[in-house]
Amino acid sequence: MSRMPVVVIGAGVIGRTHIDRALRHGEVSLAGIADPAPGARVLAEAAGVAWDADFEALLGRVKPAAAVVATPNATHAEIAVRCIGRGVAPLVEKPIAHDLAGARRIRDAGAASGVPVLVGHQRRHNRAARRARKIIAAGELGRPVCATVLATWLKPDAYFEASWRREPGGGPILINLIHDLDLMRFLFGEIDSVQAFVSSAVRGHAVEDSAAVIARFANGALATFTVSDTATAPWNYDLASGEAERFPRQDVDAYFVSGTEGSLTLPRLERWSYRERRGWEDPIVRERAALHAACPYAEQLRHLRALVEGREAPVCSADDALGTLAAAMAVHEAARSGRPVSPQRNSMR
Questions:
Q1: What dihedral do alpha carbons 119, 122, 125, 127 form, nearest 10°?
Q2: pTM recorded for the entire structure
Q3: CA 95 – CA 182 distance, rounded (Å)
Q4: CB 113, CB 154: distance < 8 Å
Q5: Phi, psi at 31, each rounded to 5°
Q6: Cβ proximity of 184 and 328 under 8 Å
Q7: Could you tell me which residues come within 8 angstroms of residue 242 by beta carbon, excluding any fewer than 6 positions away?
């Protein structure tokens, strides 16, 4: 079977992850890298693939079937829409866009042209997350009641040398928490409203470095989210899941999901339930599932090919990702206003 040609636009941290996975993939091939940075050209030469500073010039030369858009958030909409205009299916890194208007541009362009769009919320492709979704959907935890989600870790000072990471929109709400909002939507369904506080007390940047969020879901369940990139702590999905090799994997959990009949942690998939009598004085049993290791980024690329070929529906469509972005924007608005805010995916703001 021939491999489907894919280009990567943007050779930063996440772009290099996609480049590495594409180079080692059995169903897609890396056809080129677009990024004006000198290091990107060196990377392309080492990989033996085409390079160009201009992504449209690269698309014209190599004519890929799909393109990974791994550039700064504010550029996602323009690049993705131009890819769609050339008939190239974009895999847009999260967040789908810098704002809701940009996300709608991508969604509407894909719908009008028939070019499929996939958004890179890669946790949806993680085997543990998929197992958790099946467990919850099957009612094995009973009715969802609440969840506690932690995204606490320490980003090094060098991370903030890129100025956009010190400005509004470049903080952990849109960079990190948006993953957690998306995965909880994947598990519990739509978010009805959020309340939030943010702080920039540690670094003093124009953007937040920490946030605390309460979310109410349409099914009546509640969740608390704590995110901070200034905390010396291991409790976050990235360190716990082992999805990216650059992070030292920790044997901890970051999600604690509870229902009326049982509870579940992620990513370790520890399940807690009663076997006979049910009450706080009775014995509670713990079980832990062991899954085969698999890379969600590689699975995402496999799915991208199936999507382009019309064999599968998108695991995370542009409209779905728009819902997650709306939830993240609602967090920002709730922090500014001090009031509960409902995500409005079709708001004109």
A1: -170
A2: 0.94
A3: 10
A4: no
A5: -100, -20
A6: no
A7: 249, 293
